[in-house]
Specification:
The protein is built from 21 helices and 46 strands. A hairpin with a 4-residue loop joins strand 7 and strand 8. The chain is an alpha+beta fold and about 950 residues long. The strands form 10 sheets. Strands 19, 20, 24, 25, 26, 27, 30, 31, 32 and 33 form a 10-stranded mixed beta sheet that branches.
Length: about 950
């Protein structure tokens, strides 16, 4: 028995975080024996023991308790487990920041408010050997600190993105090692404008959104070997001047003049800026998490030199400088080439460049106070040839562990799923942004809302979303419960729309359900209530949500007015459904937190809203008043249809999809739901067809055009490779990547879970088009690994391999069985209940997963199989008619049955149909025959 990993409030050895005097200690372990009679214990110590849980039965893998913590204190933590034969312990630690302790240091800056790169300097001496040292500091807008010319920490763009007039995060750094070099010390702080002061926002942006002067505040606390202490504070003794960054901003990029001589130091200015807004950090650090090499150096038809990193992403380019002093190297970024040439028009007003003037020193060079979204970098100004080895791209995102992944036997699907992950990395940039490249990069709440269920599967995003939930809460507090369109609001008071505003309830609840930790509900419960109450006060129709601005089904394709991106689905219907959903969430959250009166109140409210929706939009016979894909999906997803009428609504959705050629017309609202409701209601085959479509609109359309991230629009790039001329066109926008939740749940089989994946229902829905699937999800219990192969042999055997971590229980439900399966060679009855260990499950399905032709298939699919057509052509003239490419293009989307009804010149008798059907049902699809041949070869 061995404890492998300990997290504290979902963080590993957290330093200086706001822990809210409440600890959630998760751990996972491996054991060769079952968990009967297993005990667990946690002990927390500082100078003395301050908490002991005592030995308790192992019913789950966490401890959750309130604790009175002291500021600037290191706590040692030990988790122990034991059973009758074994015992294991593992140590960890956490350290508090300043908590509520007042800052005695001062905000300091330069007398010139317009400096682009304020430097602040303190020289000091330490007279005794240093035992430990902590730097507590922050800066506005963004900063880097250097001790003895070495960067403090590996964090980028600290202190992160917040509403700086309400909350400025303080970072805590362990700088013990950096003070060991000599007795003479130099602490340098370099500042940039960042989000605080730099130009930011729509339509040319705003300057000075939160302030007009760069500044910093710092406290260096040193403990000597003899346990005496010394404190260095930011105060009037510091000096200041201008640094080498001549201009920087998030959209602008950065200009860096390495020939500038840093001189003209002057005393700092003490600034009268609030210290009440200072708060121990909530944000995960922004870090360089990986590097991309140059894939190719391209000389474009226009004669440009362009670096291709092979992957769209967020970060910045770095290069090894070989240029002589005075030479300025200019880098511009873009997401795509057009006609083989560099292109950046979709970045709109964002300059997104890095200009570096060399001082002649050979060294690696990088930006400091900006970031970019790009795949391609155009280089100008160089006087020496470029080499791949001299360039690399730093991939920057919030420091989150990847927890999930899926791989199939379809390379295009694999690329799509990789694109989802890359768009999450690119946009989980302290806040969940819409895009990383253009003049936007805002914490849009609607995007985060619809993607959150996928995000928590891909990455350990608890701490990330808890911080963003605080950002949302701040904006709600400033707007009487209404949530702004994005958080932080960056000076924009607009908001109050369905889905976007419902992030106030949906995100905390989604995160709670995924991890089983109610801390995010405790933090945000008041603002969750405030959001629903704001709707109740703002609507013009009791128990419905009407009379307010709405985004509708944003970017859907079924709108009657092509100029309006809100779609055809009634906006008030969408809003009312989410009013119901948010009310239900508040009731559920109240129940979790023990607020029974609120739980009953909001449950009654949700019931009344549901009844009002049914009365307004659903007939007594179950007909939905709105005939759109999104409307049907919403009605089914949120259980608005009485059970006895659900079959009709599913049928109506299938009919609607058929009219739309089994392609999506949905936007932000409907896209994450369509495949889910189809699979949940007996139409998984159709869901898979929609998922695997390759022509516009579809997920694989972008893959076929070379996408390496998820696009904002279904057709951000047109079939000829040209950019969609619409002005709003990002090639790195995770929203429609929310389909990956369906892949995890319905394809991989992580169908349902409870208590942070303590209990999992494994119930994959198999489909002949995805015969080999493997994936995993790593919860706090450990890594649940899944792999299955359909049609493993000529007996049509299905083989499933499961690796289940200790403490997790998996219920197994499988399709097309006779109730019996082999588990590690022993016959067992379904459903199975499995605990930690490795299992091989196999069975022969009652019907195979080899797909055969049928009369309902579109004619173009039949005509694509020449071997089949040769058998069918003698039966009826329709096959000769369809051999004409023009006829096939015009009518090939219809089935033979439909053509026979619709087209007077097509005559297929009942006898002919019977002959055609007999051949079809005995003929596997061409792709299936290829699979069978390959299997026989193996």
């Amino acid at each position: 028995m061995e404890i492998n990993q300990i997290t504290i409030n979902h963080l590993t050895e957290p330093l200086g975080y706001d822990l809210d005097n409440h600890l959630r200690v998760d751990f996972n372990l491996t054991s060769s024996v079952a968990m009967q009679n297993t005990k667990k214990r946690v002990v927390v110590k500082a100078d003395q023991e301050i908490y002991d849980s005592d030995w308790q039965d192992y019913k789950n893998n966490f401890f959750d308790f309130a604790i009175n913590l002291q500021p600037r204190t290191r706590y040692e933590l030990t988790v122990s487990v034991k059973n009758a034969n074994d015992e294991s312990s593992k140590n960890s630690f956490f350290e508090t920041g300043k908590m509520a302790e007042p800052f005695t240091a001062s905000w300091i800056g330069n007398s010139n408010k317009d400096l682009q790169n304020t430097l602040l300097l303190k020289n000091f001496a330490l007279t005794k050997p240093v035992k430990s040292a902590r730097l507590y500091m922050t800066g506005l807008g963004v900063y880097e600190a250097y001790l003895n010319k070495e960067k403090v920490g590996n964090e980028i763009l600290a202190p992160g993105v917040t509403a700086y007039d309400q909350l400025v995060q303080v970072q805590t750094y362990d700088v013990t090692r950096l003070l060991q070099k000599s007795s003479d010390q130099e602490l340098l702080i370099s500042l940039g404008d960042g989000w605080y002061k730099g130009n930011f926002g729509f339509d040319g942006g705003q300057d000075n959104i939160y302030g007009d002067r760069q500044m910093a505040i710092a406290k260096l606390h040193v403990q000597y070997d003899d346990n005496s202490t010394e404190t260095i504070l930011s105060d009037a003794s510091w000096k200041t001047t201008s640094g080498k960054i001549t201009k920087s901003a998030i959209y602008y990029g950065e200009d860096y003049d390495d020939t500038h001589v840093i001189a003209d130091w002057e005393p700092v200015t003490i600034l009268d800026h609030s210290k009440e807004i200072l708060h121990d950090r909530l944000s995960l650090p922004l870090k360089v998490n990986e590097y991309l090499p140059v894939k190719e150096i391209i000389t474009t038809p226009a004669g440009e030199t362009v670096l291709d990193f092979g992957q769209n992403h967020a970060g910045w380019p770095e290069f090894f400088n070989r240029e002589n002093s005075g030479t300025t190297l200019k880098l511009q970024v873009g997401e795509i080439l057009q006609n083989g040439n560099f292109y950046r028009d979709n970045l709109r007003e964002a300059r997104a460049a890095f200009h570096y003037t060399s001082n002649g020193e050979q060294k690696w060079v990088r930006p400091h106070f900006t970031y970019y979204g790009y795949r391609y970098v155009k280089v100008t100004g160089n006087t020496k040839p470029l080499t791949k080895e001299d360039f690399r791209s730093a991939v920057i995102y919030s420091d989150m562990k990847t927890t999930g992944a899926i791989k199939t036997d379809n390379a295009k699907v694999n690329r799509l799923l990789a694109n989802v992950m890359w768009s999450q990395k690119s946009n989980f940039f302290d806040v969940p942004t819409d895009c990383p490249q253009r003049d936007e990069r805002l914490g849009w709440s609607g995007d985060a809302d619809i993607f959150s269920s996928t995000a928590v599967l891909n990455m350990d995003a608890y701490a990330f979303f808890k911080k963003y939930a605080r950002d949302m809460q701040i904006e709600q507090n400033n707007h009487d419960g209404m949530l702004t369109m994005y958080a932080p609001a960056m000076g924009n008071d607009s908001g109050g729309a369905a889905i976007w505003g419902d992030a106030a309830t949906v995100i905390p609840w989604t995160v709670y359900e995924a991890y089983g930790d109610p801390a995010i509900l405790r933090q945000n419960y008041s603002s969750m209530k405030a959001w629903v109450d704001w709707i109740s006060q703002s609507t013009s129709t009791p128990n419905l949500w009407t009379g307010c601005f709405q985004f509708g089904d944003w970017l859907s394709l079924d709108g009657e007015n092509p100029a309006m991106p809100t779609g055809k689905t009634d906006e008030d219907f969408i809003a009312s459904v989410y009013y119901y959903y948010s009310s239900s969430i508040v009731s559920a959250a109240a129940k979790v937190l023990g607020h029974q009166e609120d739980a009953a109140k909001y449950a009654e409210q949700a019931k009344a809203i549901k009844q009002a929706i049914r009365a307004e939009y659903i007939t007594n016979n179950g007909r939905l008043a709105i005939d759109t894909q999104t409307a049907y999906a919403l009605a089914l997803r949120f259980d608005l249809i009485p059970e006895e009428q659900k079959k009709r609504v599913v049928s109506d959705l299938v009919t609607r999809l058929g009219k739309d050629n089994n392609h999506l017309k949905t936007g932000f609202v409907g896209t994450p739901l369509i495949c889910q409701v189809l699979s949940e209601n007996g139409e998984h085959k159709l869901a898979t067809q929609i998922f695997l479509n390759e022509d516009f609109p579809s997920w694989l359309y972008a893959v076929n055009l070379g996408a390496t991230t998820i696009w904002e629009r279904w057709n951000s790039v047109l079939p000829d490779g040209s950019m969609n001329p619409e002005g709003m066109n990002s090639l790195n926008h995770y929203s429609i990547g929310a389909i990956m939740q369906w892949v995890y749940q319905q394809v991989l089989g992580l169908h349902h879970q409870e208590n942070g994946y303590q209990k999992v229902e494994f119930a994959p829905q198999f489909d002949y088009r995805l015969k080999h699937v493997q994936g995993h999800y790593e919860s706090s219990y450990g890594d649940l690994q899944i792999e299955y192969q359909l049609e493993k042999d000529e007996k049509h055997t299905i083989e499933i391999n499961l690796t289940i971590p200790f403490g997790q229980t998996v219920t197994v439900k499988l399709p097309r069985t006779n109730g019996q399966v082999q588990v590690n060679g022993v016959s067992e009855s379904l459903p199975l209940t499995l605990t930690g260990g490795k299992y091989t499950i196999s069975y022969q399905p009652v019907t195979s997963y080899i797909e055969y032709y049928n009369l309902a298939m579109p004619a173009k699919q039949i005509m694509a199989d020449q071997e089949l057509v040769e058998k069918l052509e003698p039966i009826n003239d329709v096959f000769g008619f369809l051999k004409d490419p023009k006829n096939l293009e015009t009518f090939g989307g219809s089935s033979l049955t439909e053509m026979n009804v619709m087209l007077p010149f097509i005559n297929i008798s009942d006898d002919d149909f019977a002959k055609i059907k007999e051949i079809m049902v005995q003929t596997p699809l061409a792709s299936e025959r290829k699979f069978l041949n390959e299997r026989r070869t193996v």
